[in-house]
Amino acid sequence: MKKLLILKLLIFAFVVCNAQKQTTLPIIKRTIIDFLKWHKAGSEFENGRAYFVPRYDEKDTTKTYFDSDSLELYYNRFRKSNFVSETYINQLKEYFSYYGKFIGPKRSPGEIVKIEGLDQDIVLGTFEPEVILDNLSKARITKSLIVHRKALLSVNFAKEVNLVFILTKQDKTWLIDYLGPDNTSINSFFRQ
Length: 192
Known about the structure:
Layout: H1 2-40, E1 54-56, E2 63-66, H2 68-81, H3 86-99, H4 130-133, E3 140-147, E4 150-158, E5 161-170, E6 173-181
Antiparallel strand pairs: 1-2, 3-4, 4-5, 5-6
Helix pairs in contact: 2-3
């Protein structure tokens, strides 16, 4: 009798968890797709790409940093989108902190400057974001794990083009903590 009761409880727990996952996944997928649509529309560039203007010391022409006030405006655009968490914003800050050391010496006015790290799509981490952004309607979740307020998903956009998303549920809203390449396949688009 005890075994039967335990079996029933396990089946009940499995059914409840599976039902919760089935209702949560579409909501999470909608958050991901809406964020990528927001990004495709260039919504983070309200003031153009002026966010990334390097600042130089008045004393000399050596590199110093990206303009922090402009970058804060950039981060605020992400905050106002209600798609990403502070964890994601902190990763953007680390990104600019790292690539700030590649700014180089002050250039003459009108000189075209390539700053390492800004020649790719910052959000998607690729030189070919259209492979993802033009295939949003084909996006499908291939792997998922949801534990309480955290979700880990792999989303496929085209053949061998998969992104991993980590989301956290805050006040009934799923927010993106991380997105990056899913390189579990040897033929992954991001390994090339």
